[in-house]
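Sorry to interrupt, but I need a hand with the structure work. Please put the record directly below this note.
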Amino acid sequence: MLSAKSLFQEIIDNDESFALFCSIAAGGESQGGWENARIAALVPADQRDLAPKITRHGADEDKHGRIFDALMKKRGLRPVPVPPDTDYTMLLERHGIGLAHDRLRADRPLTVQDIVIYLAHSRVTEQRASEQMELLRRHFADHPDIGRAVRMISHDEDNHLAYCHEELLRLAYAGHGRAIQRTLRACALAEIRVHRDVSLAVMAHMGRILGWPKAKSAVLAAGIHAVYAWERFAGWRRMVSLEMPERRDALGGPPVTAPEFA
């Protein structure tokens, strides 16, 4: 029987597929760390209170990248090249979602509108990350090899999502509500397409590594397309709603360092 737990169990039980999974995850997290560090350095003067939280966000992403690297090292594995069709962050940028890297490399202060774009992009992608890590936590929180990492990363992703809600609501109250909703909708609709494409690519690569029969791969691809159809019809709306989170000031204070997994 196909299930999220059985599929991921196959992936983590095989060294080659586990290395690919961790390399994809580590690459995306490290990229997010760089982006947040640049945004923190370029925050406009009237939003400087955000800088420590953006820095904390980036530090968490860097930490997650190190955790995935440590999980590979623990198994005696090396990072592998990330196939371009599985590079979620790169594909989002190509679709114009978030702040372009050329903009972040320029030593020119961001605008409030840029901050809206950054937070809206983060609101959407952190929704996805929070849900995916919640799924892993539900099935693998007590796993002897990855359970500790799953619990820590899941907690952080929930914090990131809470932070995005709180800061976007603050900006909405300051008069940016229409721009926020417009940007959130565009981000969500683009993200669900990218997520579909990346999911199909990841499953194709995993299928080749694990020797899945064509029928199994076809069923998985059909499931991914079905999820996309639901998200395109209605599911995207969960990514654009805003409500004050229970975790207030979720990114206040210093970041928590990565534990040792060796």
